[in-house]
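Case study B.
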Amino acid sequence: MIQKNYYKAIIIGGSAGSFPVITEILANLPKDYPIPIIMCLHRLKDIREGFSEALNAKSAVLVEEPYDKQKIKGNRVYLAPSNYHMQIELGNTFALSTDIMVKHSRPSIDVLFESAAYNYGKKAVGIILSGANSDGAQGLKTLKSKGGFAIAQDPEESRITTMPKAAMKATTVDKVLETKDIIRFLKKLV
Amino acid sequence: MVEDLQLNDIRKLTDRVMEKYGYDFKDYALASFKRRIIFILNEQELRSIDDLLERILNSEKAFNQFLSDLTVNTTEMFRDPEFWSYLSKEVIPKLKNSKIKIWHAGCSSGEEVYSMAILLKELDMLDKVTITATDISNSILDKAKKGSYTLSKMETNRKNYEKFGGTGKLEDYYSLNGRIASMNQDLLKNVLFVEHNLASDGNVLGKFDIIMCRNVMIYFNSNLQDKVYRLFHKSMSSGGHLAIGIRESMVWSSIANKYLCLNQKEKVFKKIEE
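Model:
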């Protein structure tokens, strides 16, 4: 049973093959989607710009890369900036870090998901999309252990299945969904 | 494996460290601080905060190691090459004083200090500048002084240097011993390394024309950040420049209205009011 207006944040992790999924999701949500969407997508560290612009071109909800200590609000999509880990801090703000890579990644999905798990507990939805490594699996496990709602993109549909499969192995996900059903699910939350 | 810590464990650690050594970590940003502590526990195969406390409270050497492990020391030469290009084209050549003073606050293993020295050398300004490089950890400062970096790190540094638009080759500034690159020590002739704790040492080290503090204050909570901003303000010459990390913001600080943002993307600010 999905409760409306219950969740405080939607946390999304993705890597190779997730870009079209993300754009499809964002293109199908209304501009005033009230739950903050917080995303960590693996990206080339040398390419500092262009990513959030590319997402903004498709998304009705405003996409931004947050600054350290920025407040988290609804009607926003937040994208982890290049070459920083992005965490959620007490008081519902972002905390960035240049700490060592986790699973060869910075930003790392595990780092984001774990901090979201501690701060939002059962009011977090975590979604792991297509990707070529296992980053995010540990994080989704922690999110689930704190009572959050865990979703993996259906490996049948994922361009690269390693990441959703690793997440499904690490924890018992609540739902395995195709992109169109992820969109339907997100719409049902509000 | 330790996977999580409770808040009261963390508070116990910061309290005992403060009592014994006078280092104040209570205003460090929690999420990153917790990650570092968990990392240290697992790396040293310790099972709890009590085990860690036993180790560091009974040995100053172990505490010093803890200090250097605790701070995030991932840095690169010419990290954010566009920032360094901006500094080199728009900021430093316009400083007209005969003597220029630069403070690298939280210099870690020294990569940005060497970047600055190389930049100044290529502008033929190295002799005009004195650099004060500070960090909380003495053992990290020793690393910075030595300036020895692995080849794999130098590969990242080289790419950054080329994007920055260096006029030579990064290889011109170091010698290789096996797989270790040692930076030329003449780059440090006007550099002074000083142990300094931004969280507690409120004393002004001088009046600086440029203060560099990139990706350091992200590890502090807003209270401590503001305290540090005020220290920088007191330590800044009139018309001096402050550089913070490209994903940091000073709009929330109490000194924000005394600064003009010269470059919003590269986060360079100029002091316009005492």
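The mean pLDDT of chain A is 94. The remaining cases will be described in the next quarterly update.
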